[in-house]
Design a protein that fits this description.
It contains seven helices and no strands. It has helices at residues 2-30, 54-62, 65-79, 82-95, 103-118, 120-124, 134-143. α3 (65-79) runs antiparallel to α4 (82-95), α4 runs antiparallel to α5 and α5 (103-118) packs across α7. The termini are far apart.
Length: 144
């Protein structure tokens, strides 16, 4: 009896981690991290905002690309939701690799703004694997 229990335990110890890793990987690959129509509304730091007043374009040209992107993402967070803003941040960094060095601060800003707009629990529900854990760090910094 003791031998059988030990054998079952060893089998579970070897098989269970593999099953958990595979199921987690499959779950992540099946989640749609973008929203419908996201390719139509791809956000780039150099894109002009059609809803902005005419004078805003001249003002945006003098601002750094990451600051233009930050303003657009924060506006999008307020008008839509943080998940869409995070998806567009990821797309912008993919399209303009020079923005990668600002990704952490942008995602942290989104996390902080999401807490102000939605509260800590709801804000955390929008988390995406963008810029490591910067969004979650922004959410957590507003809780304490």
């Amino acid at each position: 009896m003791n031998y059988t229990a030990r054998r079952i335990g060893r089998t579970l110890a070897l098989v269970l981690p593999v099953v958990l890793v595979l199921s987690g990987t499959l779950a992540v690959t099946h989640v749609s991290w973008t929203t419908q129509g996201a390719s139509d509304s791809t956000l780039t730091a150099s894109a002009s905002d059609a809803s902005a007043p005419a004078g805003a374009d001249a003002k945006n040209k003098r601002r750094a690309p990451e600051e233009v992107l930050r303003a657009k993402l924060l506006s999008e967070l307020r008008e839509k939701d943080p998940g869409i803003a995070l998806t567009h941040l990821q797309q912008a960094v993919r399209e303009r690799p020079s923005l990668a060095e600002h990704c952490v601060s942008l995602a942290r800003s989104l996390g902080e703004a999401a807490v102000r707009a939605y509260g800590p629990n709801r804000a955390q529900s929008f988390a995406r694997p963008v810029c490591d854990t910067a969004y979650a760090t922004g959410v957590a910094s507003m809780q304490g």
